[in-house]
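QA checklist item 7 of 12: single-chain prediction sanity check.
[x] sequence parsed
[x] length recorded as 447
[x] structure emitted
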Amino acid sequence: MNLRKTIIPLGLLALTSLYNVSSSQAADNFKDKPYLGWSSWSLQATKYPGYGGEISEQTWLSAQHIKEQSDAMAARLQAHGYTYINIDSGWGNGWDEFGRPTANAQRFPGGIREVADYVHAKGQKLGIYYIPGISDDLLTLNPPIKGTAYHIRDIVFSPRRHANGWGGGNAIDFSKPGAQEYIQSIADQFAAWGIDFLKFDGITPGSDQRDPTIDARPDVAAWDRALKKTGRPIWLTLSWNLDLFDNAFWRQNSNAIRTGSDVESYDDKLTHWPQIKWRFGAVRRSWMLAGRGKGWNDLDSLLIGNAEMSGLTPDERRTTMTLWAIHCSPLYSGDDLTKLDPLGLELLTNDEVIAVQQGGIVASPVNSDLQKQIWTINEGKGKRVVVLFNLGDEAQTLAVSWKELAMGGLWNVRDLWTHQDLGKEKEEFSAVLAPHSCRLLRLTATR
């Protein structure tokens, strides 16, 4: 269950459009490779001492904490490709004279632009969070829509329709004049603040919402159109657990989609193994839908960097990073980057593993055994990636034959986690794997 519905004033959003990548977006390679970065939600939500505590209050989120994470990313992760610093729910508080969201002055005393300038000076990008719908308080205020003769009440459905996955907000009727203009006014404001990423949350069909009358697809299309019209490259991720029957629409109107629910456990740890194991089923349902030129499946935050807080064993942490990498999910840590332990830093900065994710080719399953899973990536030119996962609770021997991979001959085998060449194999590779562990291999054909 996603728990964010009480956090930020309910948002708003947008109309229908055909997908055309703008020249600025194409230059930023949004469809060529997934991004790497960090996001604030996990630290806002955990009940680990000193962080979010009661998530409805979000006591952790502040400009100062965002800057500290930016500093840590610059010092420890940025050389390995991490650039995005994403502010999640809770940054907003109230509205300006045109009904556009304003930053919480206590948490962001210099505003969002000041934080954007800070991270941009480090060569990083800034992300922000929003949701569909117009909140009740904004509807009561009924301000004018910038540059139009219309007001907020002029663009909502009557009678009221709910707007998002939490069954809240007032849905925008995009057949009404002023509706797209309102979304454009917010998108332009985000661009003026220096925003480089938008997480659009509570999207339906999806977000565990079963009410067919709550449909955020018009909002998604309107935001996609508005962001492109700003002229600024802004990555758009749609969240969460989107209905894959609408996959073509999601891919047309975004850069990545969340294919599952939240990875956080919302207790005194960041996550637990069941939250990770569940994602193996999600990737089996969606691996063929993503990849270079299509857009990306977002598996949610990586929670592998802080030993005490993680809730995962060392093997489970490595398995998590491996699963995210071979499915080309955006790699964004939800850890406290100022407190990475040695293993966490090693996992997040293994350039050979990151190269698999940046390659943009999503792994496909080799077998049907759900406890002893084997996945592969055919990179062409005599190169393959092969992964063995033991999802069981006991040690098991896993083997993959070259025949299963539809290849023959002699292949060099390299372990990408240990950076060790394991020698040449002609028929198969096998290994004994501890519970919840994996092997990540690169195979190179010999002449």
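[x] summary fact logged: The domain at 23-362 is CATH 3.20.20.70 (TIM Barrel).
[ ] second reviewer sign-off
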